Amino acid sequence: MIRFALIAFVSLFPIDPAVAFPVNKPEVITIADLQEGDLLFQKSVSKQAVLIEEVTHSPWTHVALALRNKPDGPMMAFEAAGPVGFVSIDRLLARSRDGRLVVMRLRDRASLLTPARLVTLRTTLLKQKGKPYDPLFLWNDDAIYCSELVWKAYQSTCDVEIGHPNRWSELGLQPGPARAELRKRYAQLQQPLDLGKLQKEKIIMPGTMRASPLLVEMGELGPKAGQ
Fold this sequence. Notes:
The protein is of the alpha+beta class. It has a domain at 34-164 and 205-219: endopeptidase domain like (from Nostoc punctiforme) (endopeptidase fold (from Nostoc punctiforme), Alpha-Beta Complex), CATH 3.90.1720.10. Helix content is 37%, strand content 17%. The chain is built from eleven helices and nine strands. The strands form two sheets. It has a seven-stranded mixed β-sheet. The chain has a two-stranded antiparallel sheet with strand order 7-8. The longest helix has 13 residues, at 146-158. The relative contact order is 0.20.
């Protein structure tokens, strides 16, 4: 009897799924909400983004850091997407597939990123300015890629690992577009691709860092983020 009564009630008063089962939408924030050292994760539109997704099985293909270009300057993004350096937040947003950035912050920022350590972090990052981008994703310091820049800066400054680096062997680099592109890049640099040696190399990817329990999501930056 109760079952039939419930069915009759639902028929008379249909439940809106959006009300009964609400989906928590990310908080929308602005550039004014950013703090130096925040991590800016992106689903980028670069050609290599598709290849990174193929290898890492994650849509997060780029990460930058929120940083002022000088102590009293505007908040910008510091990244390795070419020669290491600053780019405006708006320009970074324009390179996002969905026009958005997910902002993550150290969960224990107050204790880990003290004012003194923030100065050290800035100094550490600025020493990398102008360093060439690493298209081979190697763990040396001759060149550097986006997540390597951020990971190493935090590791050396705060002694934390935002995500555990993998070995290339764990990524399962199968024959396909990603391996073909990597081989092409080695050829352009006139270097042989030694897959056996590469498999032993460390690599840290944006998706790995995005999932770190050391971070907490602050919200999303979207169009007109400066407003």
